Amino acid sequence: MRVKKINFKAWELKNFLQRLHAQRHRHLCWLQGEADWCRQQAVQRIQVAGWQQGFWVAASTEPLPLQAWGLPAGFHQLPAQTSRKLLGSEQPCLVVDAFTGFSPDALGALSGCVQAGGLLFLLTPDNWTSFDDPDYQRLAPWPWQAEQLPKRFLTRCQRLLENAEVLQAVQGQASIYPQLPSGSETALAPALASGAATQDQQRLVQALLKNWQLKPQLPQVVTANRGRGKSSALGLAAADWLYAHPEARLLVTAPTQLACQSLFQQFHARLKFLQAETLTGQLDFKAPDALLQEQPAADLLLVDEAAAIPVPLLAQLLAAYPRCTFATTQQGYEGNGRGFALRFFRHLDQQTPGWSHQQLQEPIRWAPEDPLEKQVNRLLLLDAEPPEPGQANDDYHFVWLDRDQLAQQEELLAQVFGLLVLAHYRTSPDDLRQLLDTPGVRLAAVFAGSKPLALAWIQEEGGMDKALAEEVFYGRRRPQGHLLAQSLCFHGGFPEAAQLRWWRLQRILVHPQAQRQGWGSRLLNWIATQARSKASEAPDFLGTSFGATAELLPFWQAAGYQSVRLGITRDPASGEHTLQLVQALSESAENLQRAMHERFLETLSDLLAGPLQRLPNEVIELLTRGEVQAVANQQTRKKALNSADKRELDAFAEGHRPWLLTLTALKKWLALCLEKPQIKETEFEVLAWQGLLYHQWSVSELVDYLGLPGKKHLGAWLRSSFKSLSSR
């Protein structure tokens, strides 16, 4: 790209930026046209502004020649998928290059990093709605191609931006500047004696210190929108606490250490101001999993960005560290703070009544009524709120939501997405695009009058031919999407699962004020009735996948769903083992469900003795309730290899199936091997197999016993030994 002569009025931009800086506001600069023209315009505006650093955000990893375009050496390319690395930092400007692909999550995350007086550039085609966005590849489940997907989300974005007060430049047209609010300059007040930037932040610091002195010790929760100084307040309070308790040990945990950057910066700056940098006490960071595993002694634990940590892990942290403060973003790039609050607050009410909740309202990084914050919130519905649920005498009705209409009706979309945000703690801006544009999505809802009361997000899956299903079973293919169908095919060991048609209930949620009134169950029943009435479009199965807890499992069991698989590792999002349940709707599905459930019961005891040995007792009781005779029958049949065993062992021998997923079949195989007179229990390799399958040897212990160079060589040894013993 060759940078041409500036074709906009530089003085207009300078005047605009001066006023923006004086008011401590930020703005969106939307550049529309051909890719080269938009990039040239962004570079020229950066040069006029005199900014020496910033980031150019691209969804693709292909290097862009930023310095050859004329940008200073302080500008760097940032892949959209790593955008959270910038959280906590401040930049004079950012460029979001939608020609490389538009990532809603990246925009949501990075908008809070633009400092007061700065711009966020958004580069798009003039007709964005007809552009084949490369980032849509992530939305296209097999057999769809990205270019076949609708562009409801992009169409909505373009419509909103065309009617928004943004700095706009279209190729071949004059720049349009938004009307800035009139009034005097907005100066940031000098820091208070406590180091706080605002009275609001100082009140929080004082409340934190007061609470940490209470006996008995009770937890605190701090919530705030982005840019309010939540993490900085934690750092200031931690420094004052350590100054008053010089030998104390304080711990900080968060999803990433980068998320605590401002906390540590304020902590060290405050200690320096207090001339207390040589105290024997300390403030250390520990990742959540390492903290729970090691549980080092500490006088105080601070948990930052708590909404991004599964609630079960937060409950464990609270049990281990009673003097604990949890802080999280109420709305912003995660889009999950409010849903987290509902779930975690319920736990606190039950376990630690009397806990306290503090909030920050006043922004610090920028002045109130910031235009960029408003614009991004509206584009991504970060501030969407569901309405209050209807009254008992309202007209309740069940409907399928039309996504074309949903994309056009902003109020309804905000209500529906607000319900998602409120009721599910992992909702993010990317989910809004998936909701509107991912193929095979069905949205079922219960309305109280005109207000959504409950919602089910359904994803169509399966329908693969036999050849492709076999490829998935053997691990040679991983078509995009089809989470449940592929998991039951590969992990569960049933290729037929990928061939049948599924409706996977990706999420089902009820307005918090209407929960425990039976609306979720009624919605599930309505969906099942609707599915059976679809004739040629009817799915064979309804299914779901979620973190196994004693709270959720009874709901699905009461609706007629049956457990068919339990994951052997904990899901990083939920902190629980993933449980998959199904409900058959066709005769072929009934036969497969019976086979999958029997296999689940047959393998469960082996898994509970091994990788699932820490599964909560209440979950085990729910999984096996009413199944005592079935489990006993499975145990009596364990000696002989059945068709599922043979299929799994064949895949294992060829290197397509991990040994942990083949545990029951391998135990049967070893028992049959030991019945052969030519194979002795005391043989070296037999002892290795017994240690692995029966004595829970760790992989490291087995590698040491076998004298292998490393863990990566274990799989090859197991397959070779399996074939050797089988042939004797």
TrEMBL record:
- Record-level GO BP terms: rRNA acetylation involved in maturation of SSU-rRNA; tRNA acetylation; tRNA wobble cytosine modification
The record, for Pfam families, names: GNAT_acetyltr_2, NAT10_TcmA_helicase, TmcA_N, tRNA_bind_3
Instruction: Write out the residues that bind ATP.
Output: 195-196, 201, 365
Enzyme Commission number, as recorded: 2.3.1.193
InterPro entries of this UniProt entry?
A: Acyl_CoA_acyltransferase (IPR016181), GNAT_dom (IPR000182), P-loop_NTPase (IPR027417), TcmA/NAT10_helicase (IPR007807), TmcA/NAT10/Kre33 (IPR032672), TmcA/NAT10_N (IPR013562), TmcA_C_sf (IPR038321), TmcA_tRNA_bind (IPR033442)
Molecular function, one GO term: ATP binding
Q: Mainly resides where?
A: cytoplasm
The TmcA/NAT10 N-terminal domain covers: 12-166
The UniProt entry, under SUPFAM superfamilies, shows:
Acyl-CoA N-acyltransferases (Nat), P-loop containing nucleoside triphosphate hydrolases
Check the UniProt entry and state the signal peptide residues, or none.
none
Which residue range or ranges hold the TcmA/NAT10 helicase domain? 221-383
- Provide the residue positions that the database annotates as binding acetyl-CoA: 551
Q: Which ranges carry the tRNA(Met) cytidine acetyltransferase TmcA tRNA-binding domain?
A: 623-721
Catalyses: cytidine(34) in elongator tRNA(Met) + acetyl-CoA + ATP + H2O = N(4)-acetylcytidine(34) in elongator tRNA(Met) + ADP + phosphate + CoA + H(+)
Q: Does the keyword Nucleotidyltransferase apply?
A: no
Q: What does this protein do?
A: Catalyzes the formation of N(4)-acetylcytidine (ac(4)C) at the wobble position of tRNA(Met), by using acetyl-CoA as an acetyl donor and ATP (or GTP).
Which family, according to the similarity comment? Belongs to the TmcA family.
What is the protein name stated in its UniProt record? Answer: tRNA(Met) cytidine acetyltransferase TmcA
Organism (species): Marinospirillum celere
